[in-house]
């Protein structure tokens, strides 16, 4: 008579579970879509946007939140075998990624909603697209600045000594303060002042007494603004500050008289990334009116889909948000970061 | 077991160290000696010829030296208190020292950014004790950074010294006293030399960790406080300049080894002093 040992039975049971369960595990993994993006957007994306797409497409979005430049570095490192399928990054970083052959052009047949976008939201014939347009101004603490902020000069005002936070030039939003500094130093409009780095750094050096800190991690800095430790935070966008305001935080976003900026929010498909079909579904959803209306309502950004409606009470800042010459930015950014470190340290 | 047999037991550790430590260090050194065109010393010339690089290096050294000094000044007597405590008290002290080690450095550093605020616990204590009339600015200052980093690294100074003190025979000080040594003389000539191995171990740990600290200065000081570690990160991640980052890495390593080596030599001299 054949006898069964306990160890033998356990081994057989384990093998059975492995044989029958493994395909299931593989299937579950195959519906995962790894998406890279900014750390600051993780909250509202996970709460309001990803669940809708997950319901529509049956995928599970795995969001990897960090900075655009770090995402670029990840794309470079994983070029042979990409881990991410879709990345949300700023336009200047998209330009670099495209030039290095890291992106796959979006095909209108796979992402038909691309036809509904405003023409300026489509870059290099579909290398990447803008899925939203947040506007940029000065974030401020309402308790400390009850009258708001009417000019960028407030960053330099003696009353704000040790109370100003700047984004690092390593972050894309750090660029806006540099352009503002050049504008205030020279009196030239943003379109001309953006090319005068010497004037910008001359003016920025005079801002040092007012600095509380320079951040590379936006959520930590936002926390300081909300607690009142800082009163002003330059280069902030509607998709962060106004969400916090709506959530009850004592902060607001000012549109200074000198003008506001356009934060370029791009989305792209990673070349040879996993789950190409799911990536197309995700990209198409981000270009749809439905998702863009959610983004407009929850993160106070302007949609790029021509069919998307603005929610009631949506405040559009006066004037056209300024978009800089990204080619010039990319050409000089390394040198600017080196100079920034030396001047601002 | 034969001597050869015992020697083989070290092979896995040697292979691991070779692959994980020696090889990357060799690659780092090679990277610092080449640019896009070939082999060159330009990376070192540029680094040593730049006033900014010297500023960053000096700042990094200053942070490491001050952190180590603060940890010795607080940690040395604390290690004695810990070793002399008995029963529940000793268990409590050890738990107080070890439990924070289970927390991530990021959590602890972020905690300090809250504690050091104008309305944080530190400023409230200072005002309540009458030491200050108004909130002091501590956050994003070097003082705040030193408070935070010394707190985080203190256990690494206390524990090695504590483990050495526990092994010192208490009768040695009695013997010194019978030979005419006063308490101070007995302490400086008998106890201090015997604790030197623990001090050297503590200094090595704290200095090495503080000279290479990245997360704590970044969270407690922000982007304005550039050290060799932040220079390495910026060079590789943002500037795409691996040679600059590698040179900064080699400089960091050399400084670390020099100071640790010097502390070992100094400790030997103290022990050898009659």
Would you give an account of this structure?
The complex is a heterodimer of chains A (345) and B (274). With 345 residues, chain A is α/β, with parallel strands linked by helices. Chain A contains twelve helices and 14 strands. Chain A has helices at 6-30, 42-57, 68-77, 91-99, 174-186, 190-193, 197-205, 218-227, 238-246, 276-286, 289-299, 326-344; strands at residues 32-38, 60-66, 86-90, 103-104, 122-123, 128-133, 135-141, 164-167, 211-215, 232-237, 251-254, 261-262, 265-270, 302-303. The longest helix of chain A is centred in the first third of the chain and has 25 residues, at 6-30. By secondary structure, chain B is mostly helical. Chain B has a domain at 52-102 and 152-272: MetI-like fold, CATH 1.10.3720.10. The chains are: A alpha/beta (345), B mainly alpha (274).
């Amino acid at each position: 008579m054949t006898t069964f040992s306990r160890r033998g039975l356990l081994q057989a049971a384990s093998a059975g579970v492995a044989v029958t369960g493994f395909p299931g595990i593989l299937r579950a993994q195959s519906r995962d879509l790894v998406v890279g993006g900014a750390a600051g957007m993780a909250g509202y994306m996970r709460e309001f946007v990803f669940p809708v797409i997950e319901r529509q497409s049956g995928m599970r979005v795995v969001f990897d939140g960090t900075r655009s430049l770090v995402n670029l570095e990840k794309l470079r490192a994983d070029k042979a075998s990409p881990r991410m399928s879709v990345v949300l990054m700023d336009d200047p970083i998209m330009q670099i990624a495209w030039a290095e052959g890291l992106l796959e052009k979006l095909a209108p047949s796979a992402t038909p909603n691309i036809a509904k976008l405003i023409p300026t939201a489509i870059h290099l014939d579909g290398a990447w697209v803008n899925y939203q347009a947040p506007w940029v101004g000065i974030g401020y603490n309402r308790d400390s600045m009850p009258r708001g902020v009417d000019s960028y000069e407030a960053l330099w005002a003696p009353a704000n000594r040790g109370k100003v936070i700047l984004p690092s030039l390593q972050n894309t939003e750090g660029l806006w303060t540099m352009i503002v500094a050049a504008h205030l130093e020279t009196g030239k409009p943003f379109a001309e002042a953006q090319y005068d780095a010497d004037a910008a750094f001359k003016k920025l050096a005079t801002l040092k007494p007012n600095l509380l800190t320079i951040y590379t991690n936006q959520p930590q800095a936002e926390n300081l603004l909300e607690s009142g430790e800082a009163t002003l935070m330059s280069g902030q966008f509607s998709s962060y500050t106004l969400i916090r305001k709506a959530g009850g935080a004592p902060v607001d976003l000012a549109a200074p008289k000198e003008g506001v900026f356009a934060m370029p929010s791009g989305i792209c498909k990673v070349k040879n990334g996993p789950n190409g079909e799911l990536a197309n579904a995700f990209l198409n959803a981000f270009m749809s009116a439905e998702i863009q209306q959610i983004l407009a309502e929850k993160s106070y950004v302007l949609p790029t889909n021509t069919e998307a409606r603005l929610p009631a009470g949506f405040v559009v800042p006066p004037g056209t948000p300024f978009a800089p010459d990204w080619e010039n930015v990319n050409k000089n950014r390394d040198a600017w970061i080196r100079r920034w470190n030396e001047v601002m340290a | 077991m034969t001597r050869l047999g015992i020697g083989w037991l070290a092979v896995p550790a040697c292979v691991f160290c070779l692959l994980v430590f020696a090889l990357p260090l060799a690659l780092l050194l090679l990277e610092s000696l080449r640019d896009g065109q070939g082999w060159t010393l330009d990376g070192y010339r540029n680094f040593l010829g730049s006033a900014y690089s010297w500023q960053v290096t000096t700042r990094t050294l200053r942070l490491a030296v001050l952190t180590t000094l603060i940890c010795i000044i607080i940690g040395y007597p604390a290690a004695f208190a810990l070793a002399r405590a008995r029963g529940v008290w000793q268990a409590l002290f050890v738990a107080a020292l070890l439990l924070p080690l289970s927390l991530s450095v990021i959590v602890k550093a972020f905690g300090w950014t809250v504690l050091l605020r104008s309305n944080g616990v530190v400023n409230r204590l200072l005002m309540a004790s009458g030491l200050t009339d108004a909130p002091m600015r501590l956050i994003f200052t070097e003082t705040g950074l030193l408070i935070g980093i010394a707190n985080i690294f203190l256990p690494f100074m206390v524990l090695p010294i504590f483990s050495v003190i526990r092994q010192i025979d208490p009768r040695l000080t009695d013997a010194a006293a019978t030979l005419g040594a006063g308490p101070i003389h007995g302490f400086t000539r008998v106890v201090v030399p015997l604790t030197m191995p623990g001090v050297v171990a503590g200094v090595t740990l704290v200095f090495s960790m503080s000279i290479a600290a990245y997360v704590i200065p970044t969270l407690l000081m922000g982007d304005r406080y550039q050290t060799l570690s932040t220079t390495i990160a910026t060079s590789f991640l943002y500037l795409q300049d691996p040679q600059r980052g590698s040179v900064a890495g080699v400089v960091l390593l050399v400084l670390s080894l020099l100071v640790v080596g010097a502390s070992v030599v100094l400790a030997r001299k103290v022990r050898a002093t009659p």
